[in-house]
């Protein structure tokens, strides 16, 4: 039996008759008939096949015989007149005509015959808010929901279902269907009733037992003396065959019926022979007690409270191995493999140390230290992938490549390197950096190196494989971390509903972690990872936060490794979205790009971008879907900007209205309504700001595609002016609690904080100001790039250069003001107390803003030195911003002590300052009285690598080409 679930245009050919498939139809493919399938047109065909393979294999008579050609010759037939087709329109009409709230119609051929000797089927109709009659029968059935929603109670389990769901009802389980209010439910069912009836095994709970009594012998008259002592053997009367436990349908044991003589009979009744069972449980076998072999627990074990385990004897020839027993064996094998792997690694490490000449005392000492040692600068989130768009690279022994378009820091640092190399060449200084080296053209980075030697990070990777992915911290600690998320990251990106999430967690704890979804558990673990890695450096050192957060990350990955490839629920989209945000703060930011791609595809698959697709959901679900969609849009704009790659979500896809917050403001279990409302205002302000970032990337950076010819100066200035007008309108639309803030205002407000809301409001203003200032730097950077590219060139276009000097000075001024504001705010906050350090967002955003601002200031200073601007402008600008690269380096040194990514960026910045030729030796030593000389007050570790093979292909990638030919300054 084939039920057509979805699609049109397909066909089933049955022994020369081609039948068109229509949604809801039932098509038969009888035994011994050649049949195949085909599809005309586009779109999928989905159907549900009803088979009885266990029965056929049991005999066994199941096999497949292929036709000797690719297709059996067939011609179209009229579906309405074919005995092989039961059109849904006909069946639905019969159901609708039937009286009552519940109607059942079986699929029958002419003469009221079942469709086959083995399988049969029916359709059911249930009015909204009504229930079917309770049933219990010896057939096994499979149901499919054609339309509507509701639930079924099968045995003691409640199954929620909606359109498209499929569920089963095992034999002799009592079941009843309930339709949701307001919608009519249609169900399709196929079962094995024809075969069960033919074998004489069919019985329903309503069946009169007397009707099942065999008529082979007449019933005795118990009042007759002749019947008291039968002289001939008689068949035992039974309502069902007794030995049915081993059947593939798992029909429960039937009750035994027998005739009893009167009490005055001089002879006792014959002893009832014990029914033999296929397998007794271990407990009954040990006690040599009678076992009724009921699964999952026999009656004796239930009464005595014993654990009921069925373990087949070693001599059994038809062993049925239970799934839990196989799982326990697999678990033990995995533990043995892990133990052997650990021993092998330790032996290899010990052997290598012995071969290097170390004595036994030294080896023993090193092993003791290894047991206690925690690597102080462990790479983030476990392992490094391959390269990192501020710009460093770590590659395997094969080539790894990545494209970084015009908006990335990789592209901008190449302009700086070109200018430094060109100026050094013109001044006669030896350098390996040529002004027009082809390696600097485009945005493609490629590098290769031998594989890295195994280090501490390898052991970390092994540790995570050995951990239980279902393990969680104690409930009180987990609940505290969840609330920290909703008062930090959850306020900045409010796409997870706090009350719903907390309610699910409380139910999970109350039910002792039973029936919890893997995707929800994965989402919980990635939330815990996010809380851990974004914690203040005063709460825990960087290496501890990285290690602890990676434990949660690895668990979430183990839980959802398969589900993320399907991406069929909103929970999975939220999981992927939050994982993408988490990976931005790790040495796996190349994976952030990949994971974000999965999140976008899953969001589009669920129709989060569509207003029509959300109409079927409740108001709460609509709002959650909307916020999750805009979360995908924000992450897409961020990664497009930092990686310099085309957006995965074009602006033309973003047509939904902004979140309204009518439903989600009630988060009283975590924060008050006032804070929730302000959080939504920040979210909406960020959405509108980042839509302008996407517009700027389209107009000024050629959509990061890397195909358009360079725009003229006049075109760039015109686009910048137009976008500045839009940005001005955005700033004026901000509510008063989110107005942009400068350093003086922040210092004044910081001293007047009297409540948690005041602190949150100030934090939101600072974060929004940093986002705004960073966008202005990005907006005006193309003008600065034109100035930088003109430095050191003998054949610059004088007309374009003159136009640039006339129109571009205002852009340079705006870039300078924005970068100074970023550095001033972050520098001031990181030098304050632990509490005020929390005014910033996630540390990797502060790192990106500071590092990017410092690069732009160095670019402005290079242009000032080379005379690319008007003379009256140069002196004032250079004096004002000359100290800011040092100020940025000092801010990075205080941002997150011990964080490898922060250290790499700081050291790169300091060496770039040293090799730029902008500062004298005295200035480098004194840091221009800024308190940050280049004597490395926080020395980088010996194993720190900022070469082109130092970090993975990510948003903090550092272009190491500058140091490939220019030696770093001597200490």
UniProtKB/TrEMBL annotation:
Single GO biological process annotation from the record: DNA-templated transcription
Domain of life: Eukaryota
GO MF, one annotated term: DNA-binding transcription factor activity, RNA polymerase II-specific
Coiled-coil zones: 326-353
Record protein name field: Putative Complex: the estimated molecular mass of the purified gentisate 1
This protein's record includes keyword Transmembrane: yes
TM region positions: 842-864
InterPro entries membership: Cupin_2, Fungal_SecMet_Regulators, RmlC-like_jellyroll, RmlC_Cupin_sf, XnlR_reg_dom, Zn2-C6_fun-type_DNA-bd_sf, Zn2Cys6_DnaBD
Residue spans of biased composition, Basic and acidic residues class: 257-266
Keyword annotations of the record: Coiled coil, DNA-binding, Membrane, Metal-binding, Nucleus, Transcription, Transcription regulation, Transmembrane, Transmembrane helix
Pfam families, alphabetized: Cupin_2, Fungal_trans, Zn_clus
A cellular-component GO term for this protein: nucleus
PANTHER family attached to this UniProt entry: REGULATORY PROTEIN GAL4
